[in-house]
């Protein structure tokens, strides 16, 4: 079985980005500050899953941040139909189908990067097994929500918690049995 992890940073009021996709409000983990467990987490995943909006926002950065991981980009846009190269594959598949494909490729753990809508589509199908949420002590007042508001309630159990000196708190939840 493939473990699907939704690992994200969110503002105190539940947003993962500003309305235009901006994340400048996040603490700079690359600048020698705290990494909030990111390094260990990244090493534990075999694959990356993201939506096309997240993909395009990442492309605006200087370098592709996941060169050593297989990545699936979800999109129904035709312009990506024949764009799959190297470690990046574009897919219009449903989350259920892709999870079967991942299992067939021996993927054990996949990370949903960004994309509250994509995460919601996995959640409403019961496919997310683990949530890693870094709550950042910032209130954005609006933006892209951590999860798009759809689906039925899920019961979760806290499996880990780490507070950091800057006020950020890393929370780990697993689906309750």
Can you describe what's shown?
The chain has one domain: Dihydrofolate Reductase, subunit A, CATH 3.40.430.10. The relative contact order is 0.26. The longest helix is centred in the middle third of the chain and has 10 residues. It starts with a strand and ends with a strand. 19% of the residues lie in helices and 32% in strands. β9 and β10 form a beta hairpin. It has 4 helices and 10 strands, in the order ββαβαββαβαββββ. The chain has 177 residues and is an alpha/beta fold. The chain is globular and about 40 Å long. The strands form 2 sheets. The protein has an 8-stranded mixed β-sheet.
Cα-based radius of gyration, to the nearest Å: 16 Å
For the record, the CATH architecture stands as 3-Layer(aba) Sandwich
Order of helices and strands: EEHEHEEHEHEEEE
Q: At the first level of CATH, what is the class?
A: Alpha Beta
Average residue-wise pLDDT:
88
Q: How many DSSP helices? A: 4
Any descriptors?
177 residues, Dihydrofolate Reductase, subunit A, 8-stranded mixed beta sheet, alpha/beta, two-stranded antiparallel sheet, 4 helices
Helices and strands in order:
Layout: E1 3-11, E2 15-17, H1 38-44, E3 47-51, H2 52-59, E4 70-74, E5 88-91, H3 95-104, E6 109-112, H4 116-123, E7 128-136, E8 144-145, E9 156-163, E10 169-175
Parallel strand pairs: 1-6, 1-7, 3-4, 3-6, 4-5
Antiparallel strand pairs: 2-8, 7-10, 9-10
Brief description of this entry?
This protein is of the alpha/beta class.
